[in-house]
Amino acid sequence: MSSLRSRQSLKFESTQPRRSGRLKEERVLVEKNVIPLPEKSSQKKLDFPARKRRQASSVTHKSASPTKKDKNDTVLEKAKSAFHSSLPSHLMCRDEEIDHMQLFLHKHMESNSPGAMYVSGPPGTGKTATLMYLLDQIKDNGSDTIILNCMTLTTPQSIFNKIASELGLKKGSEKVIIEHITSSENMILLALDEIDQLDSRGQEILYKLFEWPSLPNSCLILIGIANSLDLTDRLLPRLKAHPHTTPDLLIFPPYTKDEIMLILEDRLSPETSSMIDSMALQFCARKVAAAHGDARKALDICRRAVELFESQMKSEESSEKNKVNISHVSLIIEEVYGGTVKRADVAGSIPLQQKLIACSLLLATRGKSSKDVPLGKLYSTYVKVCKKQELRFESQSEFVSLVNMLEAQSIVTIKRGKEVLLHKVSLHYEESELAHILKDQALLSAVLDKGF
Amino acid sequence: MDSSLRIRRRSLRSAKKSDDIDIALEEPGVYKKEKGPLSRKRGRPDSPESTSRKGGVVIPLRPALATVRGRRKPLEIHVAQVRLHASSVPDNITCREKEFANICTFIESKLIQRNGGCIYISGVPGTGKTATVYEVSQHLIKKSSKDRTLPHFKFIEVNGLKLTEPKEAYVSILKQLTGEKASASKAADSLVEYFNTTNKQRSPIVLLADELDMLCNKNQSVIYNLFEWTSRPKSKLIVVAISNTMDLPERVMSSRISSRLGFTRLTFYPYTFNDLQQIVTNRMVGLKVFEPDAVQLVARKVASVTGDVRRALDICRRATEIAEEEGKSLVGMMEVSSAIQELFSSPLIMAVKYSSFNQRFFLQALIAEFKSTEQEETTLKLTTSRMNSLLTSEGNEPLSYGEILSVATTLWSMRVILIETSGNHQQIYSKIRLNMSQEDVEFGLKNAVPLKY
Fold first, then answer.
1. What is the pLDDT of residues A317-327, one digit of tens each?
2. What's B273-345's CATH class?
3. pTM: predicted TM-score of the whole model, two decimal places
4. How far is A230 from chain B (nearest CA, A)?
């Protein structure tokens, strides 16, 4: 199944701007086992194409604002596909990480010595992309490369079968694989993405995998990728017993706002960047960097903003705005993170009976220390409230399904208990927020005033 | 999409539809074929997931079918019943024009750019999520056959509730893509290969993942893979994920999945009273079956509770059936309100209303016990003594313990009350609790049907 191996023709003609605005101290490096960062001159042994530096692309081509609608459309399409979050053709702002990983690979490949490395970092920080890029560079040097995403495995145990079939072995047992890796002439590079999925009882599988490189005559280079920073410390404390089994650690920090800015600008051609206000990109970069530093999210927000702009263009022909600006970006971010508070402005209100239930819940928890109410008790409160307000009330089974609907709209949370009537319900919002969501201050205050 | 134009087109088509119905009723098979392969699952089979889909009362679908088979011209009321069934395909989705345009633009631009992406659609049951997506796909299929710039695409779907296990999704997707049958793990392997290889000839794929929350397994690998494939450079996979929960990506999914899912979200809000009224009226174009006030009542009633269109249609359909039984040709307020009564009334209250003499005394004793102790739980022993004192105070003979026990077990088997026999206690100390609210029991007892002796 060679198709699993990376086949992207990563073109490297475009170059990387110098990482800017990042201090060495920011870098989270675990002190042990960190290979000293290479001097820039020591890169020649492996034939990595020399990386030219480019000045950070400047957004100065704003003057040509397209007037024809057709032209506008194609530019927008281009902008949208530019922001598509698939693997990039070249990496930005990951120079140090690339150097680190490159040095690791280089060291072990050249001297035919086995080794293990654990790469960690939050989602969307370029872990897999870095690996793919480097593997593409060295694919012709005679080593066997296996890339597996552990998420596709049905059980952790099936990893051995997978590896065996990738190596072209007939039997998928562990013994056969060990035999192969201790007798092979070529170096074998095994890259496992989302390695934390191999979590099993006693961490047997992970231990075995990380011990393979330290077997006598082993020729395996193992690279594991996952999100948690301390996977090796937390799950695999025993690895520390032998200094030579301890894997190298490489940590990908979240992107900073300047880095995200550079990534976004890099994606745009002069033509497409004329469609987007640089302030909007700036805003998006700041927002994302403050929350996660996830490049995928930044790209997606920009793409959505372009889409929003497009739909606005379509609806209002004589639109004054001819650029994607901050308001588009902020609307997209609000849509997702604003939650229910925001949605009240966009959508119609929720049905009356559900409002009544939410109000009853507020009434039942008001002035009490515990914020959750058993479902049975909430029902009797609700019935009393309805009677006070001279409104119809629903039967209990109906009531239960209504509460479930409120949960689906993330207005309440239900802690499920043994009996339906003992489920604990609690409200997500304070009184003022609730009034905003329900868009019905009158009803809420009537319920709260009259009580039950 | 120009909505005014769409509406005009719809009304024309709907007017035509009354002729089509004749054929449809005579040969149901033909009708099904005409709907095309996409609409086949629109009227989904009963699922345990929501009360919405269960419909209220299980009633044999068209009692009128017999007369229709007898080559008589179908009555308007029968035509109306067919149209009000959730599985009958509306010519156009009413009141969801904005959402339609939104999904349509998203998929269309992805198709033109020939890359992948995913959109997450949420909304409570019966708000037209799945129907709108089907509508979009049909619209785009039609458009792609005319328009050169829009490539042909494959539309496939998986429904989390139709799968025995999340991993079965791989099997189902592979089968729809290539026709191969394989076990779950084999299918996953082939799909990884399928989406990782570059194949210029392959047409883009639009995958509808319905009931996404049911596709979540323990490590959420199924949804991870779905979204991961969309970001493969050459996969050309567009995933449309549907679920009820609004904040599922934030609440349930791990960060690596929500990072891949991205920000393309769309929420379907419950139908308002106006929407529901328009939907029912649109289905009834060309028929004089409902009084306008009756439709309004249904719309108001449903909009105040759930805004679930399936339920509105259910009530209307039941109302036509009631009218038919009574020999009326026009459905008025009376029929509608009795249909609402039927569909909304709880079976437990009905059980109390029609309970026997001893059961009534037992429930009364139970409530009296709750009120005096101000607790919601009592024992069989206490209830027995209170029930006997109630009986004697009204001039009846007291009952033996055995008799009362049999009353209690009957009520328990109907789940009006719950009995908890804990450990090694004797039966007389077992705890009793009501399975419905006290108000409902009192309401049922007050309106109880008089006993005949």
1. 545 567 888 88
2. mainly alpha
3. 0.74
4. 16
